[in-house]
Design a protein that fits this description.
The structure holds 2 protein chains of 2 kinds.
Chain A: E1 3-5, E2 10-14, E3 19-21, E4 24-26, E5 31-38, E6 44-50, E7 56-58, E8 64-68, E9 73-78, E10 87-95, E11 103-105, E12 109-114
Chain B: E1 4-7, E2 10-13, E3 19-25, E4 32-38, E5 44-51, E6 57-58, E7 67-73, E8 76-81, E9 90-97, E10 106-108, E11 112-116
Parallel strand pairs in B: 2-11
Antiparallel strand pairs in B: 1-3, 3-8, 4-5, 4-9, 5-6, 7-8, 9-10, 9-11
The chains are: A mainly beta, B mainly beta.
Chain lengths: 115, 117
């Protein structure tokens, strides 16, 4: 069985500070990896995804993530956050074999950016 | 980018009644649509997957007779919560995918907040 673990339920950070949101997954087969952002009362929006190739993936709004196969991690980073980055962030995986191409989500990390 | 809409955004109903939630892909044809349920402070849990013109595939533990899903066209899917009870109160989110396989990006609707009194 696959699972996605987001270790931090809440991450407070001051504006213009760097941030890292952690994501680990467990799977014995290859996966696709995703980060989504959910602003209050809105649907999920794709930030970035890793399918293959370079392990450093750049997404929208200045976010990036690095796929680390040996550590089964896909942490999300931003060098300088803004108040508008306050939102819920979800890591998700797709199991490439036998999973029916279904997204499995982590429990989410609430990023709160403070002045 | 692709837009997925849901209607209504909020609904309050009495226990025992049925509620229908619509999910539409506004500018693309959705070959596959997904329905999720999200509890407060928790992750999205996949309820079912539907392909246009086919019966929905439900995840383990989801009652297919209670959560009726219809994907009659490439732009519309509906979720009907039948004989709703307070424990069905939740945030329901649909997602639509136009491409083939996992490479097709899923676009999410804004969600529907269901409150059953």
């Amino acid at each position: 069985a696959q699972s996605v673990t987001q270790l931090d339920s809440q991450v407070p950070v001051f504006e213009e500070a760097p941030v890292e949101l952690r994501c680990n997954y467990s799977s014995s087969v290859s996966v696709y990896l995703f980060w989504y952002v959910q602003y209050p009362n809105q649907g999920l929006q794709l930030l970035l995804k890793y399918l293959s190739g370079s392990t450093l993936v750049k997404g929208i709004n200045g976010f990036e993530a690095e796929f680390n196969k040996s550590q089964t991690s896909f942490h999300l980073r931003k060098p300088s956050v803004h108040i508008s980055d306050t939102a819920e962030y979800f890591c998700a995986v797709i199991l490439l074999t036998g999973g029916g191409n279904k997204l499995t989500f982590g429990t989410g990390t609430q990023l709160k950016v403070e002045l | 980018g692709a837009v997925v809409s849901q209607h209504p955004s909020r609904v309050i109903c009495k226990s025992g009644t049925s509620v229908k939630i619509e999910c539409r892909s506004l500018d693309f044809q959705a070959t596959t649509m997904f329905w999720y349920r999200q509890f407060p402070k928790q992750s999205l849990m996949l309820m079912a997957t539907s392909n246009e013109g086919s019966k929905a595939t439900y995840e383990q533990g989801v009652e297919k007779d209670k959560f009726l899903i219809n994907h009659a066209s490439l732009t519309l899917s509906t979720l009907t919560v039948t004989s709703a009870h307070p424990e069905d109160s939740s945030f329901y989110i649909c997602s639509a995918r136009g491409g083939q396989g996992a490479l097709g990006e899923q676009f999410f609707g804004p969600g529907t907040r269901l409150t059953v009194l």
